Amino acid sequence: MSPALAMFLGFIAVTLWITWWAARRNTGSSAYFAAGRSLAAWQNGVAVAGDYMSAASFLGIAGIIAFQGYDGFMYSVGWLVAYLTVLLIVAEPLRNAGKYTMADVLAYRLSPRPVRAMGALSTLTVSTFYMIAQMVGAGALVSLLLRDTGIGYETAVVGIGVLMIVYVVFGGMLATTWVQIVKAILLMAGTVLLSFLVLGHYGFDLGAFFDAIGQVTYTDAQGNQVTRDFMTPGLRYTPPYGALDLISLGMALIFGTAGLPHILVRFYTVPDAQTARRSVVWAMLIIGTFYILTTFLGFGAATIVGRDFIAGNGGTNMSAPLLAQALGGDLFFAFISAIAFATILAVVAGLTISASTSFAHDFWTNVLHHGRERREGEEVRVARVTAFFVGAISITIAIALGPNANVAFLVALAFAVAASANLPVIVLSLLWKRFNTAGAVCGLATGLVSSLVLIVISPSIMRADAIFPLENPGIVSIPLGFLGAVAGTFLRREPEAERKFAELSVRANTGLGAERAGGH
Amino acid sequence: MPNPPREKPGDEDVDVVDWERVAALDEFRALLKAKRKFIVPATIFFIVYYFSLPVLVGYAPQLMAAKVFGVVNVAYLFALSQFFVAWMVAWAYVRAAARFDGMAQRVLDRIKRDSR
């Protein structure tokens, strides 16, 4: 048995034990959907960080920096600063006024059925795109890492899908959270160790490291040997549209994070708004440290391993594992690969639970059955069944797309939809008294449709024939989402929504009446 | 037992609170005002500071490529500074929020006192 396989199996064993432990403690909706609202600030903070540091971050960022230098580092910056939107605007009111899902806050003073139906649709869209991206990446990665054992892409995708279904169906939010915590700690340990080895490679001389970044040699698309300064911007984002694309990407990150359903639901797992606030700070410390260290991961891979070698041995996504192999040998390679595997597994589990919670709570209970559970525990049962279907559908799509699918646009789409559809209606419903149901439905629909359409006609899909020149639709679709929400609002007046603004505002700002730990 | 059809996330006993009246309390209005006074400028600041990075990288590439020491250029230092600025804004918010917590508590105390 290869060391990589042994470490994968070890991680799986630990997570299954966590699931078994959590399953015995899961009684009732609040326990299943929100871990009993009992998590400490640091636990939730680490879990939020874990949910965020997906395979796209660990493998993707290292790869982009290794191949395109500074421009890749721009992603790292946006991913941390985005948390200020979460901290200052969204986290505490959401915790105070909601229960299980993003749509809870909207349903408060707006007509619950239409906004929950749209909220669930948008949550499922964001989560599914995000998840398929992770699964495709995971399948390709695992089959590459375990190629000696003969495990192929399909088997890897099915294995990951089955594991994530097991975590979510049996362990609920509690198991998903602890799997996330274990993985986040492993990921940070691996990143710190790898950065340390990169520095060690340069004799702990930062100057020597940066000098190496100043002249990276690789073979370009025409087959010529070129030497570039990887610290200088412009290797990825080039004129005429590069600058706009960078700004558009920044907008999607800054405004999208606070609209990502799988991040938002985490704030329901803590006892109160103060703990939610402290958990964001924990998350920012971890996420910030991690993204600063991508300097060493990405530029380390560029200088020590080299673009040409990475391109010939699995491509951009293998930059971090190959760097580990170069510096620490096969055993360290196995360890970093196992962490990448754990990362993907934990993130898809988090996505699955937020998608199935939204379907069960928003759509099944509140849209179809007018807010009543016909039988005790029905909502949890529906969520478990949904988790199974979400898993099965993602497995099928990931296998149909195949290991070489372009997954970057799926993640871009998830962020763009979250920023263009979810964030405008969350912010307006919390801050604008005049806002109403028509505005929410209109805003969600405009944001969702415009980001979908713009991605479809973008270079990510249409390549050279693209009608829309930017890879990321944010710069157009986010204003459209806000515009749709405002225009919809002015279509009519809704006295009930305006009357209940006082109640939402008091609840959101004081925590009066918020559901506490161990709630029912 | 079926749950009553309501959109209330919390304890039922707080339904007796007259929300309009609480919203009009001086203590509550002071809380909203204090929050606005911190959150609005802080949000504008971090958004402007953040977007000046892609804007400058995109439209002033020579300035950003200028070397400060060794190969380390303005672009990298500016990007790095974003992390520390974000942490500082978060730290300032946490300090301010401790004050908001006290003000929110005064609103809750007032409600309790008035309902007695």
Overview of the molecule:
- The complex is a heterodimer of chains A (520) and B (116).
- Chain A is an all-alpha fold and 520 residues long.
- Chain A has a single domain, classed as Sodium/glucose cotransporter (Up-down Bundle), CATH 1.20.1730.10.
- Chain A has 21 helices and 2 strands.
- Chain A has helices at residues 3-25, 29-34, 41-52, 55-68, 70-97, 103-107, 112-145, 153-201, 206-214, 242-256, 261-264, 273-305, 307-312, 319-368, 378-401, 408-431, 437-456, 459-462, 474-491, 495-499, 501-510, and strands spanning 216-219, 225-228.
- Chain A has a two-stranded antiparallel ribbon with strand order 1-2.
- Chain A is globular and about 70 Å long.
- The model of chain A has no long low-confidence stretch (mean pLDDT 87).
- With 116 residues, chain B is mainly alpha-helical.
- Chain B has one domain (26-115).
- Helix content of chain B is 75%, strand content 4%.
- Chain B contains 4 helices and 2 strands.
- In chain B, strands 1-2 form a two-stranded antiparallel ribbon.
- In chain B, β1 (67-69) and β2 form a beta hairpin.
- In chain B, α2 packs antiparallel against α4.
- In chain B, 22% of the residues are buried.
- Residues 1-13 of chain B have low confidence and may be disordered.
- Classes of the chains: A mainly alpha (520), B mainly alpha (116).
- The interface between A and B is large, with 72 and 59 residues.
Give the topology.
The complex is a heterodimer of chains A (520) and B (116).
Chain A: H1 3-25, H2 29-34, H3 41-52, H4 55-68, H5 70-97, H6 103-107, H7 112-145, H8 153-201, H9 206-214, E1 216-219, E2 225-228, H10 242-256, H11 261-264, H12 273-305, H13 307-312, H14 319-368, H15 378-401, H16 408-431, H17 437-456, H18 459-462, H19 474-491, H20 495-499, H21 501-510
Antiparallel strand pairs in A: 1-2
Chain B: H1 19-24, H2 26-59, H3 61-65, E1 67-69, E2 72-73, H4 74-115
Antiparallel strand pairs in B: 1-2
Helix pairs in contact in B: 2-4
